[in-house]
Design brief:
Shape: flat
Oligomer: single chain
Number of strands: 0
Keywords: Membrane, Transmembrane, Transmembrane helix
Radius of gyration: 29 Å
Number of helices: 4
Distance between the termini: 47 Å
Strand content: under 5%
Largest sheet: none
Structural class: mainly alpha
Length: 123
């Protein structure tokens, strides 16, 4: 009987260890995902994209023979800065509207239950 209990305990401990490893992996994956989100919003990334966009557009315009490529390349770089600063606000508005619509749809599809008045059994 003791042998069966120890085998069961060993099996449970092994399962516990596997579950702890899985939880640790999920935590690492979650942390990596959070860091990706932070990178996407970081000032460092925005500055790098603006600089590389600007340099690429300057070279592109120069080889196309556009007059004043250094000044004309400011437009796409500026547009990128503008979009990265306004999109988060538009995203918040969109999410709010989406959640409101989803809530209304859910209310419309859920069956209505009318409880008799004075029914105190739900407390």
């Amino acid at each position: 009987m003791d042998e069966i209990q120890t085998d069961t305990q060993v099996a449970l401990e092994e399962r516990l260890i596997l579950l702890e490893e899985k939880v640790e992996k999920l935590n690492l994956l979650n942390r990596y995902s959070e860091m990706q989100d932070e990178w996407d919003k970081s000032l460092t990334r925005i500055v790098l994209v603006v600089v590389f966009t600007y340099l690429f557009v300057v070279l592109f315009m120069y080889f196309l023979g556009v007059e004043n490529p250094i000044i004309n390349a400011l437009l796409p770089a500026g547009a990128y800065i503008l979009s990265t600063r306004t999109i988060p606000y538009v995203k918040k508005i969109w999410i709010k509207q989406y959640l409101e619509e989803e809530s209304k749809e859910k209310e419309a599809t859920e069956p209505k239950v009318d409880l008799p008045e004075g029914d105190e059994s739900t407390n």
